[in-house]
Each structure stands twice: as C-alpha cells, then as structure tokens.
Amino acid sequence: MNRILQLVLLIVFVFLFKGIATAQGGSSFKKHRYHSIGFSVNAMNYVGELDPGPSFLSPGIKFTRPNFGVTYLKRLQPRYSLRANVSWGRLKGDDYQNASFNDKDINRKMRNLSFRSSILEIKVDVVVDLWENRGRHTKRPDYTPYAFLGIAYFHHNPKTLYQGSWVALQPLKTEGKSYSLNQVAFPMGLGFRYKLGKQWDLAFEMGWRFTLTDYLDDVSKSYADKSTLGSQAAKDLSDRSGELFANAEMAPYITNQGGFIPDNNTANGNPGGTTPGYRINGYGAAGDQRGDSNRDWYIISGFHLTYIIPGRVICPKFRTFNNKLQQKLLAYQE
Predict the structure, then answer these.
(1) Which of 196, 190, 204 is nearest to 142 (CA)?
(2) pTM of the entire structure?
(3) Weakest-pLDDT range from 54-63, 102-111, 165-174, 322-331
(4) What domains sit in the chain, N to C, each tagged with a CATH number?
(5) Mean pLDDT, residues 117-124
(6) Which among 79, 38, 67 has a CA at the least distance from the CA of 196?
(7) Can you name the residues that pair with 86 across neighbouring β-strands?
(8) Quick one: how many helices (H) and strands (E) in the chain?
(9) Model confidence at 30: pLDDT above 80
C-alpha cells in the first residue's frame, strides 16, 4: 500500500479513536446536541487507468469537473457528529489528451481510450473534530480541523464519444465482462471548519473515495477477443488504437511499437468506416494488457457552507412560574 495512503489513514483513525476515547459523559451533552443543514460546491477528480497522475493524492487535474451537494449533520457528542450527504458530479478521463509524450505515458496515448461519467453519491460518515466543545453550539471554537470516515453508495455510467454521440459503455461489454453501475465506496478525508457566526460555518475539505470497482472508467485488465463481442460499436470501442492511423504526431512512436496491424474486427482507422480496420501492435488482440487490477478512486474537494438549527430553549423562570400556577389552579378546583 502506498505510504502516503497509510499516512492519511493513520491521521483519520487517530481522529476517530480520539473522538471515541473522549466520548464518555455523553448523556450530559444531550441538551447541547444540535442539527445542521448545508450545501457544498466542489471539484471532482478521477484516479484510474485513464489518469496519468502519479498517485491518488495528486491526480491529473486537466479534467477536473464540478460537483454539488447537500448535507445534513447531527451533533452527537462534544467531538463527533453523524453526517449524511447527497451529491452529484462528473468524472472524465482521456488517454490521448491527458497523457504526455514521455516514456511512461506514451503507451496511454497509443491505447487512446476515453470516458466521462456522471456520479450520484449518497454518503453517511462520522465526523470527528480535533478540538471538542462541551457547551452549546455558540461556544464552539472559531476554527476546527476534522477528519471523517464512512460508507457511500454511488451510481455511475461511463460513456464515450463515438461517431459524434455519447455512447454508454457498460451495455457493450467492451472487455467481454459485465459490471454493475451501482457500487459501494468508502469515503475518508480531512477538513478545516471556520466559524462565520453564531449559526454559520464555512469548511474546506478533501475526501477520497476508495471504490470496490475497477470499471469506473470501463477499463480493467485485458482486451477481449473482438470476434466474441456483440456489436460493431463494442468492437470499435474496446480498442481505439487504430483511430491513430493517420496521426502524424504519433507516427514515430507507433513505428517503434511495431506499427499497425490489419484487424478484420474493427473499422478503426479506416477512412471509409468499414472493415477491415487497424490496431497498433501490442494493442487490441485478445489477452493484450488493457488496464490493471487496481481499484479506481474518485476525489471530491471543496467548500461547505452550513447553518446550525438552534435547539429548543426552555426558560427556567417561566417553567417554575408555570408549575406554581398549575398548583394554585388545582388547589382552587379542590
């Protein structure tokens, strides 16, 4: 496991265990519990086969896309809260546009795959503050670092641009395999919250989603046998290396790779759009490497504005007066 990932996990779990360790005496905090609602404006990034970023902490930012969300939070203890969030955003990756001409990325350019996907996420997590507040919400610190860890359901639908239209990839089974568009992810992250006023908070946070799928981008391990794929679109979109047939910029690199090979199963690279087409040597044949076995990630980072709903306040003096009044009325009735 990446050492940076281990460090992030360590920080998150330190926050969580610190919150649990100081959760004693929670019953005395019940009168200070409160609810919050809010919305967020975020940036969304993807980490997977079609992203050339060096790690999940530094993804390629060329295809950063917007994300918007609404949040409900319940303060349970002096240090931690339970939060629910619904958000929508978009991911995008493109081998040719996002990869460079260096030795590491040139293979991505020759693979020439691309996708975009809309993500609907429903998330529940535990938020743990570094500094606690045992009083009412008005007594909370002016600024607070925090961490969160939870679980999320998300719906995705990878598509690619093909013959002028956006085509859904999952029904085509471009690698000869099925996968679900409904998936589970484990969100974790860090944030910093600032107190704007008695009932308003502004926070910035960055959260990583570790998914349980390698098909966020419709790319996983190996090319399928094109002759077994169900449609011409599936054959063409499983391997797009042949689309570089007339690309002069790539010609020297493709020559070093072994050049183009005629391919009766695809129309890629054929100006007339009919078979046979072409594929680059080492791409598109059954068993050739198409992706890797690592699970995909996505990242949501941005600003959260929340409003604290004040709890019901009971005036002790009025309650005492009311009790005395009831006693007098009872005595009068007797």
Answers:
(1) 196
(2) 0.82
(3) 322-331
(4) 3-221+292-333 (2.40.160.20), 228-290 (no CATH)
(5) 97
(6) 38
(7) 70, 122
(8) 6, 12
(9) no
